[in-house]
Specification:
alpha+beta, seven-stranded mixed beta sheet, about 20% strand, single chain
Length: about 220
C-alpha cells in the first residue's frame, strides 16, 4: 500500500475517555498543558502521568464535553492512534497562564497543540485534526479559537518544542496574531468568519464528521 493511500485511510474521530488508550504513547504521558510547570515536573512520567492524563480528560469531558480529536489508522483491534489535538476552555488548561502573551481571551477556547507520530505526514494529518476541531467548536457555538504559536527563534526546551506548534501551522489555517511576541505569539480565529475558503473547509469537515459517524464501523471498546 502506498503511503499516500495509507494516509488517506487515516480517519479523525472525537477523543473520548474510552479512546484515550489509543493516544500515541507520548500523548498518553505528556502533561505539558494540563498542569503548570511546577506540578507537571513533580508528577514526572510513566504510570502516574498516564493516570493524571486520564483524570484530566475525564474531568473536562464531564464538565465541558469533547476536548480533542484523534487520528486513527487501522480497524477494530488493530486500530492505533497516530495523532491527536486537544482543546478546552483556558481555565481548564493550567499551563496557558505561563505564556508571555497570556491570558487567552475570555470568549475563546484554547487549542493546545496538534501532535502526529513520526513517519506520518504532519501537514496533512495535523490540518485534518485542526479542521475537525474547528468544525466541532463551530457546531457548539464557540465564538473564537486561540492558540499559542512558537517562532523558530524561540530558545525552547525539548518538551516545549514538541508540545507547542509553530506559528505558521496556525497562520496557514487562517489564524491571525492577537498578541505579538518574538517567541510565543498568541493567535486567534473568529469562528463567525465569512471567508469563503474558511467556511468551505469547515462545512466540508462537518459533513465528513457526520458521514464518518454514519458509515464507520465502531472501534472495539468505543461508545455506541
Amino acid at each position: 500500500m502506498s503511503r499516500e493511500l495509507y494516509e488517506q485511510q487515516i480517519r479523525i474521530v472525537p477523543l473520548t475517555l474510552e479512546r484515550s488508550s489509543l493516544l500515541p504513547k507520548h500523548a498518553q504521558q505528556c502533561l505539558f498543558w494540563e498542569f503548570d510547570s511546577q506540578i507537571g515536573s513533580q508528577i514526572g512520567g510513566g504510570p502516574d502521568a498516564r493516570f493524571e492524563k486520564e483524570a484530566w480528560l475525564s474531568s473536562v469531558l464531564l464538565q465541558w464535553g469533547t476536548c480533542g480529536q484523534l487520528a486513527i489508522a487501522g480497524e477494530d483491534e488493530g486500530a492505533r492512534g497516530v495523532g491527536q489535538i486537544c482543546y478546552a476552555p483556558p481555565s481548564m488548561v493550567s499551563r496557558a497562564g505561563e505564556f508571555p502573551t497570556a491570558p487567552v481571551s475570555p470568549d475563546a477556547v484554547l487549542v493546545t497543540y496538534a501532535g502526529v507520530d513520526d513517519g506520518h505526514d504532519f501537514e496533512d494529518v495535523a490540518q485534518r485534526l485542526l479542521l475537525a476541531s474547528i468544525a466541532d467548536l463551530a457546531r457548539r457555538g464557540v465564538r473564537a479559537v486561540e492558540a499559542f504559536g512558537r517562532e523558530e527563534a524561540a530558545d525552547a526546551d525539548g518538551a516545549t518544542r514538541r508540545c507547542v506548534n509553530q506559528t505558521d501551522f496556525f497562520k496557514n489555517a487562517g489564524f491571525t496574531v492577537a498578541a505579538e511576541h518574538h517567541h510565543y505569539p498568541r493567535l486567534r480565529l473568529e469562528l463567525g468568519g465569512t471567508g469563503l475558503l474558511w467556511r468551505a473547509s469547515v462545512e466540508e469537515a462537518l459533513a465528513k464528521l457526520v458521514e464518518d459517524a454514519r458509515m464507520r464501523p465502531l472501534l472495539v471498546g468505543s461508545p455506541s
